[in-house]
Specification:
The chain is α/β, with parallel strands linked by helices. It contains 15 helices and 13 strands. 39% of the residues lie in helices and 17% in strands. A hairpin with a 7-residue loop joins β1 (91-95) and β2. α1 crosses α2 (37-46) and α5 (109-125) packs across α6.
Length: 419
Amino acid sequence: MGRLVRGAFSAMPLRLAEGLDGAAAVRAFRRAAACVPAYRDLLARVGVRPERVWTLDDLRRTVPVIDRLSYLHAYPFEHRCRYGDLSPALEIRPIEADGGEGVLVAMGRGDRRRLARLVTIVLEDLSAAGRGRTLLVLCDGGAVGQRDLAAVLTSSGLSRRGGVSVFDGRGDVGAICGAVARLSSHFGRTVVAGTPATLGELLTQAGRMSARWSPGCLGEGAERGCTGQKSWRRVEKRSLDGTGPPSVHLLAVGAGFAESWRDDVAGQMGIATVGDRRAGRTVGLDCLGELGFLAGVETPFCTMLRRLAGRDRELAGELLGCDGDPPALFAYDPTSMHAEGLGGRLIVTLGGIHPLIRYDVGKPGGGLRLREAMAVLRRHGYSARRLLARLGWLGPRPRPLPMYYVAGCPACPPDDYRS
C-alpha cells in the first residue's frame, strides 16, 4: 500500500500533469486488451487491433465506447477481471442501477492507492494533514464512499502516524452528536462525512439536541447548551484565533449537491466564506455510482468554478456546456483515470483489476482541463487567485489536476444539457 504523501500533486508542473491521464488511459487499454478475457473478446468482435493504439487520439478514434448493457451485462464478472482471476481483489461489491439488474465490481491494490491519493487531497485541503490529529466521524461507515474512506485510512497507516482517528456512527444521529460533543475537543479538527441528505438531517437534529451537541457546540460549549447559528459562529471566531474549540468540516460523500444546499449549511454553521478551510468547509466526494468506488474530489478550484458558473451563464455555457444550473465538478487522479465528454455524455477510462475502457457512466457530463479552465476565466476577465481568496482559500496555486463535471444532482438536472 502506497503512503499518503503530503503535498499530493501540488508541486507537479502543469505541462506534466496534463499528459498523465492520457498516458494512463492508453496503458489501461493495452493491459485490458492483453489480460482481460471479456475485453479481448469485445475488441475481436468489433475488429479493433490493440497493437495499433499507442496514443490518446488513437484510443478515441478506434476504441468503442462501452456501457452497462454492452459490457457489464454481456460478460460474466470473472471474465471482466484481469486474467479471469478474482484472487487479487481486496473487495468485491455490487452496484445497482435504477430499475436494472445489479452487477459486481472489484477493487485491487491499485484502486486502493488511487483512493488514498484522493483522501490525501481532501485532508490537506482541510488543513487536516500534519496539523494535529483529526477526528473523522462517519455517519454510516457501511455506505459506499464512507466505507472507502475508513478502509484507506486504516490500511494506509495514516491513522497510526498521528493523523486521523475514525468514529463510525452507524446511522445513529444521537450517537454521532454525542460523540462529536465528547471527542472533538481532543482533536485539532473534526470532519463529519455522510451523504448530503444525512448531513442535513444531522444538522437539524443536532440543533434540537443542544444538551448533547448543537452545531458548533464542541467541548465546553456543548456543556453550556448553546444552540443554533450562534454556536457555529462562536466556533468560527474562536477557531481563527486558536483559542477555542476545533473547526468542523462537512464531507458530502456519494452524491452531488446544489450550491444552495452548501449556502444553507454555511448559514447554519455561521460561516461567511463557504470555502474557509480554517473555520469550516463543505466538500464533496463523488462515487459515480456506475463505478462503485470514489472517483473524484471537490477541490477549492472546483468549488470556485462551479459557484462562478452559477452567476455567469455565458461562462457556464462556454466552459461546462450547460444552460441551467452548473453541474457538480470534481478533480480526479490523473495517474489512474481519464475522463472525457462524447455527445454530452461522461466517458471514463479506469484501470485496475476490473478495468473499464471508455465507459459511459450513464450521465450527462464531460472532462475539463485546468489550463482550459484558466484560459476561459481570463477571457471573461476573472482572476482565479482573487476568486479563491474571496471564497476564503488562502492556500497555494490550484493543484494541476484534470476535472470532470457530471449532471444528476439536484442542482443540475439532465434537461439543462445540450446534446
